[in-house]
Amino acid sequence: MNNIRAAVIAVWIVIFISGCSSSKTTSTEQIQKETIAEQQKNDRAAAMQLFIDGSLKESKGQFAEAILDYQDALRFDRDPAILYALAKNYAGLKRYVPAIEHALEAVKLDSAKIDYRELLGQIYIHSGQFDKAAQTYRSILTIDPNHVNSLFALAQIMERSRPLESLELYERILQRQGPSWEILLQVAQLNTVLQRYDKATEAYEQMLKLDPSNIAVKQSLADMYMRQKQYDKAIATVNDVLEKNPKNLFLRATLVDVYLQQNDWKSARNEMETILAADSLDPDLHFRIGLAYYSQALKDSSLFNDAITVFKKFEKDYPTDWRPYLYLGVLHRQLKQDSVAENYLNKATTSANWNADAWWQLGWLYFDKQDFMETTRILNKAKMYVPDDFRIHMLLGIAYNRAGMNEDSRVALERAHELNPADINVLSSLGLTYDALKMHTESDSVYEKALRIDPDYALVLNNYAYSLSERNIQLDRAMKMSKRSLEKDSANSSYLDTYGWILYQLGRYEDALVYIKKSIESGDASSVVLEHLGDVYAKLNRIDEAKKYWTKALDKDQKNSALRQKIERGAL
Question: How far apart are CA 394 and CA 423, in angstroms?
């Protein structure tokens, strides 16, 4: 019995001790939980205070100082709102890498929060990462398909790369919130770029309903009507504005464009005279009127003097503007008034030495007068100001060729070819120069390239055919090419001579005589053509006639010693 009592007492002692220990453990855990909760509460309070401090600095534009507060706040509480604020302020400092890092983390912690994704999209845009921005806005639209800001941002991003998708997005916005001036303008402009003028017209018409008195919209609408050849609507739209704003000269210029598209020169001219009579005329508008007169003068030469009058008024009103000098030079060139044209074109190249057109026109002025050395002087000067305009090098090369300076011609034409490898006029001239330098491999290569670009280009066909005939090779092919050039221009004296000379090389002297005589009858024959005719007569044993044409050829080329020897011996 004593043993049993002792065992029972031992069990109760163990239970009592165990109970006391459990109670002590429970109390400690509770204290720890309460301590942690208190600490978290204090941390959140500290974070909140720092967040408020940062927000106040942010509102004053003190982004760097705000970032320091937000970073301290983040040490107490990694709340996505703090990360969002940090991203926003880094973006304000244009520090896009940390801005993106914090925005991405905010999105990761709270993926349903659209504001965080929207900020991320904006940062991507500002940092030029448009593909990632588009991806971000698409993710927002999966959460809220009608999120207008994201629809608009995505539409703007897609405007250049995927304009049709951009238009679809703008249409979704219009369907959701109704007509909007800003959206309709984007729609109108996009459709104009895509040449969907009917859709652009619809957008401008809707804009006009929102703002019936807007002159700019009416002008754009008139332009759309013009592009669709709805001239009556265009005129009515412009006149509607002019009734209330008769002094709006730019609108009158739009009316001029409508009349010109209708080939109604009389009505266009009446409007232009009204514009020119204005007390003060914008130089760009004055130039626009001058161009209209110039374009019409090219169709009707009786208007050249009228065009000159317009540009002379322009010159008087704006003496430092280069444009009247250039066009007055061109107009006087057309009238063969070379000295006046030269004066104006020199003024144009002086006041606008960067303008390749002015140098080109001045170069052509001397080239047309066959003053090839002055042409090369002008164009070499032009190269200092417009070194990369292929036309300058091309004309320089042709002028050198005409002056017999073929090596200089080659250098200039090779540069022109380098600047514009596909220009067939450059290829044609370069082939001719290579041929003159006996660089036949290069010449043939250039001609072949030209014919791949345009198999029916008559000048290349003729020049290539003549080169082959001079070397007495591939005569059958040469004849086919020459015949095709004559099909394009049957009266061309050079083409007739080439065909005749190929016949001569083939031994068909009677046929050759017919074509070379036609060549001489077609114009002022060169020494070469006259010599060819003499050679044909020699083959036909008509020596007196051969000497006659050889002598004529020598009169035009006194340096031709081989020709002189033919005459002396009276035979080939």
Answer: 10
